[in-house]
Amino acid sequence: MTTQKKQDPRSIRSKRAFKEAVVEILIENPDISKLTVQKIAKRAELNRATFYLHFLDINDLLKQVVYDIFDDLLSKMSPTLQIDNLNNQEQLITFLDYFYKHRKILAVLFEHPGFNKKMHMTLKDLIVIQRKSEGVDSTNTTLSMDILASSILGIIMWWLRNGVHFSSEYIASQIIELYR
Amino acid sequence: MTTQKKQDPRSIRSKRAFKEAVVEILIENPDISKLTVQKIAKRAELNRATFYLHFLDINDLLKQVVYDIFDDLLSKMSPTLQIDNLNNQEQLITFLDYFYKHRKILAVLFEHPGFNKKMHMTLKDLIVIQRKSEGVDSTNTTLSMDILASSILGIIMWWLRNGVHFSSEYIASQIIELYR
DNA sequence: TGTTTTATTAACACTATGTCAATAAAATAG
DNA sequence: CTATTTTATTGACATAGTGTTAATAAAACA
Predict the structure, then answer these.
(1) Which end of chain A is more exposed for a tag (fewer CB within 10 A), N or C?
(2) From the CB of residue A16, how many other CB atoms can be counted at a distance below 10 Å?
């Protein structure tokens, strides 16, 4: 507890209110370009100037929303990752189920530049962990982990973009098929 | 020449000026969210109101820029597609070379919602044409053409996003490797 | 409970948006 | 080559959004 400056409860409440507001607005109207600080503040029932006390701009707010979601996703993945006798496909389904559950907001956030980067990093990490647990040395494989992560990301983006008409199980099986 | 309403040369010039202006601005500062109609009109040396005569808004302008690029890409691909004895990899390299050549503006346009959709359609079409020329019946293959197109798209996006540090040949070989 | 800390606010100057009636200029028919 | 039509261009206007600041209010905690 050295440099961990304790947050005033008021700050925490306000930040959360803005985050919840922007998510609500985006689910109702999934057009990021139509967002304004004014609309977000009104929905959060807070003054517009308060927004600038917590966030640099709308992009900064969205970046923080993205990071929150990934923290949540990773905390929900970690118990699954520790089960050794769980195979590729089962882990992948756990992963995809998270996306399915939050598909509405995730489909919108995909448009945000920060999302892809974070998603790519997360996927790559998960693949490397997975490979290690299988005893595969990733440095020797023909396909780079970046290429693998990018191609899976592409499939998940298409899945979410098109309204999630396929089950997590089907998408998992298609991804597995790709790397047979 | 029935419903093909002939364009006034003035319209054509103005539209082109706005398109060139927005591309110039985006190459200098690749942040779509910082674009304004005002800046674009100033760069095009035209009045701001003229902008609204040709485009609905900035998104509409960007959509048209995206479509122009894909028209150009397809017109450059079609001679290549007609050469029967050209293999997968050589066609893929022709495709990727186009992206390499226009990487600066394409890396920016990837952020635009319309881009991914158009790109996915184009890729899927090219894959189906390719398969047909090889005599493969796409309806019988295990992987859907959508999944294939999405995964390749993911790789190309990663390639462009990370400053194109790999050659078209390397990326092509990695994509081919994926579907071995 | 009093004092400090910090979040909140209204107000300000500025920039951006989208539209319209008036104007200018290019296109084309005679 | 000129007259007339067509349509692109413009300045001006009302409205909405931005980012900041000094004054205020209200939680935190000693």
Answers:
(1) N
(2) 13
Secondary structure in 3-state letters for chain A: CCCCCCCCHHHHHHHHHHHHHHHHHHHHCCCHHHCCHHHHHHHCCCCHHHHHHHCCCHHHHHHHHHHHHHHHHHHHHHHHHHCCCCCHHHHHHHHHHHHHHCHHHHHHHCCCHHHHHHHHHHHHHHHHHHHHHCCCCHHHCCCCHHHHHHHHHHHHHHHHHCCCCCCHHHHHHHHHHHCC
End-to-end CA distance of chain B: 49
- For nucleotide C25, the protein residue with its alpha carbon nearest to C1' is B10
- Residues B142-164 have pLDDT tens digits of 678 999 999 999 999 999 888 77
CA of B45 to C1' of C21 (A): 23
State how far residue A155 is from chain B, nearest Cα, in angstroms: 5
Which pTM value belongs to this model? 0.87
Task: In whole angstroms, give the CA distance from residue B149 to residue B144.
Answer: 9
**Token output for B179:** 């579907």
Contacts of B157 (CB under 8 A, 6+ apart): A116, A150, A153, A154, B110
> In the predicted model, what is the mean pLDDT of chain B?
86
Contact pairs from chain A to chain B, CB under 8 Å:
73
pLDDT in tens, A42-76: 999 999 999 999 999 999 999 999 999 999 998 98
Would the CB atoms of B147 and A113 count as touching at under 8 Å? Answer: no
CA B28-B31-B12 angle, 5° bins: 65
B154 contacts in chain A (CB < 8 Å): 150-155, 157
Does residue B16 lie within 7 Å of nucleic acid chain D, judged by its CB? no
Q: Which residue has the least CA–C1' distance to nucleotide D18? A: A37
